[in-house]
Task: structure prediction
Amino acid sequence: MALFRLTLKNIRARWIRYALTGLAVVLGVGFVVGTFIITDGLRSTFDDLAADIAGDIDLLVRSDQEFGGDAIAAILDPGIADELAEIDGVTTVEGGVFGPGVKVVDAGGESVGEGFTAGFSFGPASSTFLVTDGAFAGREPTGPDEFAINTTAAEDADLVIGEIYSVSAVGGVRDMTLVGVFNWADPEDDQTIAGSLVAFDLDTAIDFVVDGAGITQVALGVDDDTDVTLVADAVRAAVGDDIEVVSNETVQAETEDDFGEFIDIFGNILLGFAIVTLIVSAFIIYNTFAIVISQRVRELGLLRSLGASGRQITLTILGESVVVGIAATVLGIGAGLGVAAILRAILDALGGGFPGGPLPITTRTVVVAAIMGIGVTVGSSIIPALRARRVSPLAALRDDVR
Result:
């Protein structure tokens, strides 16, 4: 108990130095916590979005073809939808089109949306794409000269419903009328990350987005009283080996994995900066304790002459680092919330378009923060603390000790 009181007394006597030292730890822990908070928040949000993207369909039929490069997409014969409608247990069938590279040019001649741009067919299977009924009131596109676009892209480019804009896709360039604006995944807030999503009716999407090649998928609804697995087997037998039949759960899992890869890369970059900050903090802490101990040699010698053992001296120094580490970790966790909010604001300002949502602090985040904050502080003070135990009682009588 006496050693603990001595530890607190020493911290109070040098609180400015320790506060500045603790600030380095606060920054390091804050970056680590902020990284975990924003990546956990994004992961939770995107997992919910993955469920929304999968929608209410039971089965999805698509060509077994990898998507990449400048390929339009995996193309299917539109007639396959009529064949699948005849299978027992299938209640709804909807062909759909999705393809990259569809761009809208605003009134100033600039492309709408930065980043990924795509076009798709608006229909029941695209239930996550919702035509808004607020400030951007509109309707679904119908006919070869109409399109709709996601709310964020429309707001950023000041697009006006009823105006004609130039739209380009694989099928060429057309002047088309904007008839509706929709939110992706959330009726209250467009969750599009970046870029633009442009919607057409199915016939226009086939003709324009994929230049008449066909459809890219077929969404199937299955009767509630029918085993989805048995229907999936029947569909596979009908379409052959070159076409995939996947469940709603598979679509959701694939989307989560895609989002997860992006979040992992983003999080690792931020975590790298955080670790560098902690390494710098470790050097600062080491130098601080080394300087403090060199200035306290006479004081430590006096403690030794009064009967304090080398072990007790070491524990006193380590106790100071523990107190500093705990205080810095607590403040660092609070700072992490601010770091996460700032990171999200910066990324939004740069066009990242990250969706809103809570900033969760998980038990793992707190544990990692404590291990890193207290661990770095205590670990950096061990060598100076071990040196302190070697101070001789005679040091209290000398004037030239440093």
The longest strand covers residues 172-184. Residues 66-73 have pLDDT under 50 and may be disordered. Residues 87 and 234 are 7 Å apart (CA to CA). The two ends are 29 Å apart (CA to CA).
